[in-house]
Amino acid sequence: MNLRDIDVFNAIMIARGAGAAAALLDTSQPAISRSLAKLEAELGFRLFDRIRGRLVPTREGELFHAEVKASLVGLDRLKLRAAQIKEVGTGTIRIASLSALGHGLVPRAIVAFSRRHPQVRISYQVRTSNVVRDLVASGSFDIGLAADEVDTSGVLHSVFTTPHAVCVMPKTHRLARKSTITPSDLADEPFLALSPEDTARVAMDKILAEHGVRPRILVETPYGLTIAILAAKGMGIGLVNSSVIADRMIEGIVARPFEPAVHFRALILRPPDGINSTLIAEFTAELYAARNALSSEVYER
């Protein structure tokens, strides 16, 4: 079965006529008719009825076109992957990250990597974890960092980091004098909370319930960075991933460890058919180096 004949059949179905299909494929109408007749002969059934000079798809033609469309999606994916392979070969990598690591840790890795490879182009997006997972699973991105609650089917994954949560608050907050924040400290405190489905929020709620503590939740948000910004403006205290406060990006806050420990878990994701290029391996190494350096700095401060 000739792929050109399949393209002709698909063009007829899309354009709803042999003449329009000929224009679409930049060929002649007789060539379209010959190709269609050849395909029908090979298949052993009619794809169209000829009614008053028009081609009307048969039931068999409709069913066959459904299969053709599915096959063409696969071909389009192959073309996309070929283009991506070509770009990677000439120096392009694509990274996506959840917000908690996307404004401090990952930029550190990008800067370190770019100093060593100034010729390499980097495509970088900060998205929600579910979007990061989808970008990597589709093969559109080479590396992803996502929270551990994402669906990991269709991607290669491993644990990237499990940092302790820290409490962020204004420098003038009454709890800023303490070296460690405990559940009892948060009783009736104005609290800036992560979204209820966040695994760290779930762990936090469980600990507080066990201690009979109910903070006064003012804001719920999926982004630790938002919590830190609101804390800096004096709105309250909140629990965030320590990576959020990397490089002192937000002025006017202090961070204190929370006990009992609550951990954030982030995964590093790769496409199942990802290309293990030298560039990607080196960038991954920079991510781990940034993670290790950041872990030390948070607790030194």
Describe it for me?
With 301 residues, the chain is α/β, with parallel strands linked by helices. It has three domains: 3-86, Winged helix-like DNA-binding domain superfamily/Winged helix DNA-binding domain (Arc Repressor Mutant, subunit A, Orthogonal Bundle), CATH 1.10.10.10; 91-161 and 265-300, D-Maltodextrin-Binding Protein, domain 2 (3-Layer(aba) Sandwich), CATH 3.40.190; 165-257, Periplasmic binding protein-like II (D-Maltodextrin-Binding Protein, domain 2, 3-Layer(aba) Sandwich). It has helices at 3-15, 18-25, 29-43, 59-89, 99-102, 105-116, 129-137, 199-210, 224-232, 278-300, and strands at 48-51, 54-57, 92-97, 121-126, 143-147, 156-161, 165-170, 190-194, 216-221, 237-241, 253-257, 266-270. The strands form three sheets. Strands 4-3-5-12-6 form a five-stranded mixed beta sheet, sandwiched between helices. The protein has a five-stranded mixed beta sheet with strand order 9-8-10-7-11, with helices on one face. The protein starts with a helix and ends with a helix.
